Amino acid sequence: MSVAVIMGSKSDLEVVKGAFDTLKEFGIPFVGRVLSAHRTPVEAAEFAANAEKNGIQVIICAAGMAAHLGGVIAAHTTLPVIGIPVASAPFNGMDALFSFVQMPPGIPVATVSAGKAGAKNAALYAVAMLALNDPELAKKLKDFRAAQKAKVLAADAELQEELSR
Ligand code: RP5
Predict the structure, then answer these.
(1) Ligand 1 pocket member 8 (CB < 6 A)
(2) Which end of the chain, N or C, is surrounded by fewer C-beta atoms within 10 Å?
(3) Is the per-residue pLDDT at 17 higher than 70?
(4) Cβ-contact 120, 15 below 8 angstroms
(5) Is 105 strand, coil or helix?
């Protein structure tokens, strides 16, 4: 397993599954877990402490509300940790965003966009890290960017065509 994707609750899955999809698209082996910084603190800490020796290279954490998951995981490992803030009522994700992004100096959590965009970007960021030592994966990532660019250029060409009618 090279990537671990942890969510604070199964209720985060709808947001997180985009990360699974993207990791699958790139052929990255991953493990998905529900572990909570507050409800299963011992298990979360143990998972993080053992992650490196279990072959994990990057850990993605998604959580909502007082989202301490990324920070707690990062506190127990030197592996890179990426945080996805999940939106929930009544603060619509601002609470989770601040919890993830305002890590004290010394224990970084690389926070991506909130919600589904963040799940996709967290996986892409993990791919970019793994690609540093994997030329084949680096090529896949460049191909992904090229395909994405082609899609936008095609959409622009289509718009120009519609506007010229
Ligand atoms: C957080 O609290 C979870 O990550 C989730 O986003 C939020 C609510 O959890 P549930 O009450 O849905 O289990 O720890």
Answers:
(1) yes
(2) C
(3) yes
(4) no
(5) coil
Q: Is there a single domain that holds both residue 163 and residue 118?
A: no
Alpha helices for the chain (secondary structure H): 13-25, 41-51, 69-75, 94-101, 115-131, 135-163
Burial degree of 113 (CB within 10 A; 0-12, 13-18, 19+): middle
Quick one: 31 and 105 in the same domain? yes
Read off the pLDDT of each residue in 124-141 and give the average, rounded to a whole number: 97
Residue 11 CB less than 6 A away from ligand 1: yes
Pocket test for ligand 1, best of 9, 43, 116 (most atoms within 8 A of CB): 9
pLDDT at position 1: 66
Gap from CA of 150 to ligand 1 centroid (Å): 38
Which residue is closest in CA terms to ligand 1's atom 13?
Answer: 9
Rounded to the nearest angstrom, the distance between the alpha carbon of 86 and the centre of ligand 1 is 9
Q: What is the pLDDT of residue 65?
A: 97
On whether both 34 and 73 belong to a single domain, the answer is yes
Domains: count for the chain:
2
List the residue whose alpha carbon is closest to atom 5 of ligand 1: 64
Kindly report whether the peptide bond that precedes residue 29 is cis, defined as omega within 30 degrees of 0: no
How large is the average pLDDT for residues 90-117? Answer: 97
